[in-house]
Amino acid sequence: MAIQWYPGHMEKARREMLKDLKLIDLIIEILDARAPFSTCNPEIDKLGANKARLLILNKSDMADEKENRYWAEHFASKGRKALIVNSRTGAGMKDIEKTVSVICREKIERDLSRGIVNRPVRSMVVGIPNSGKSTFINAYTKKASAKTGNKPGVTRGKQWIRMGKNLELLDTPGILAPKIEREEVGYNLALIGSINDEILDREELAQYFIAMAKRRHIGSFFERYEVSDELTEAEILSHIALRSGALLRGSQPDTRKAALIVIDDLRSGRLGRITVDERQD
């Protein structure tokens, strides 16, 4: 299954983003901590190559804690500051303003040398669909200033948000890369809900995750469904269907429904804190 999703509104958003970049001092990119590599959009690297950058590892409470630290250190080794954040609880949010001041120190000092005082840092907030970008903005502004939703593509319009005297945020719609180059990136984006489910073969997607659970010995998966990792992916789906009462005519296991159960359990956190991206060492 080759996963590609780039509807027309994303291309329109990309063109608008390109126009707005001349107004921007800083790009804040919201990543899903469950898939930090896969949700880091290479289009942003191209569009914002000469801009200051801050990465936000959002939804950190749903990702493996050790992996959160690894990915923050991994990005730091590449010269990019990354903060571990949980927008829903506000964890990590207090470090953002101080970090922005450090990243944009040259810009702030340049303004002061020209006699420009209290000019806010202008930041563009970007992220792929369903990365929690709008929830992040709402938590940071402490009000419902940006639309939120649990489906990719909720934020379609452009929104400027003033943050006191020090920061202005430009919200942008979520966009993916026009072409997903690596197969595992497409699968991982689909697993965390950043790809429109309607274009997916969810049974194949669930088998991809089951293979990952077997390879990486994700005990919480096998404990939840009381199943052995010695079975094949297809056999495990059949077991889950039978165990859940998901049956077709003749009491045959409905593996499609079982696949939906697995994907929903993963996305909701019922399988525990799981980072789907493999380390890049």
In short:
Helices cover 41% and strands 12% of the residues. It has 281 residues and is of the alpha/beta class. The longest helix is centred in the last third of the chain and has 14 residues, at 202-215.
Explain what the structure shows.
By secondary structure, this protein is an alpha/beta fold. The protein folds into two domains: 164 residues, 3-Layer(aba) Sandwich (Rossmann fold), CATH 3.40.50.300; 68 residues, no CATH class. Helices cover 41% and strands 12% of the residues. It has eleven helices and six strands. The protein starts with 7 loop residues before the first helix and ends in a 13-residue tail after the last helix.
Question: Which SSEs are present, and which pair or pack?
Answer:
Layout: H1 8-20, E1 26-32, H2 42-47, E2 52-58, H3 65-77, E3 81-84, H4 96-103, H5 105-113, E4 121-127, H6 133-141, E5 159-163, E6 167-171, H7 183-191, H8 202-215, H9 219-225, H10 233-244, H11 255-268
Parallel strand pairs: 1-2, 1-4, 2-3, 4-6
Antiparallel strand pairs: 5-6
Helix pairs in contact: 8-10, 8-11, 10-11
